[in-house]
Amino acid sequence: MQLFSTFETTGYLEMAISTLEKKGIQKENIFAVPLDNRAEDSKLFDTLHRSDGTSLIDIGMALATAFSVIGASIGFKLAWGPIYWGLIGAFAGFVLGFCIRLFVELVVKKKKRVLKGKHAEIILIVDCEESKAELVENILWSHFALGVAKVK
């Protein structure tokens, strides 16, 4: 029987492996495979098939509304009138808000992502007899495995 489990890269993985060895599982029957980290940066613009949940136009829409109201109000005193100045204000507000949000995503949040960093997980495969499967599963769970699966 094989048990598959995933662990974060911590000392608990080493403790789980040593506990398994103490309980009679041979080193040759324990196999650890580290997963690779994502090499490419996450995309800034969403596609039809993938979205990260952040919007680049939310601040732009709010500023477009505010600037269009201000532009239309001032437009009553200007030569082109309130409609043109409202549209100009909406466009200017949208561009300003989009640029603010783009700056935040590219500069501020990129620094946070680099500092936080995501580490890949490790897959631990344990080959054992069916009689020891329950013991091995309990050991893996007690050492903070992220997930455990059994295959006969």
Question: What features would you describe in this structure?
Answer:
The protein is rod-shaped and about 90 Å long. With 152 residues, it is of the alpha+beta class. Helix 2 runs antiparallel to helix 3. The longest helix is centred in the middle third of the chain and has 35 residues, at 82-116. The mean pLDDT is 87. A 4-stranded antiparallel beta sheet has the order 2-3-1-4, covered by helices on one side. The chain has helices at residues 11-22, 58-75, 82-116, 133-142; strands spanning 2-7, 30-34, 122-127, 147-151. The chain has 2 domains: 1-35 and 122-152, Alpha-Beta Plaits (2-Layer Sandwich); 54-119. The chain crosses the membrane at residues 56-76, 82-104. Keywords: Membrane, Transmembrane, Transmembrane helix.
Summarize this entry quickly.
The protein is of the alpha+beta class and 152 residues long.
The assigned structural class equals alpha+beta
Q: State the helix count.
A: 4
- How much is the average pLDDT? 87
CATH class of the largest domain: Alpha Beta
Give the overall form: rod-shaped
If you compute it from the alpha carbons, what radius of gyration comes out, rounded to the nearest whole angstrom? Answer: 28 Å
Task: Sketch the topology as an H/E string, one letter per element.
Answer: EHEHHEHE
Task: Indicate the percent of residues in helices.
Answer: 40-55%
- Walk across the major sheet and give the strand order: 2-3-1-4
Transmembrane segments: 56-76, 82-104
Keywords: Membrane, Transmembrane, Transmembrane helix
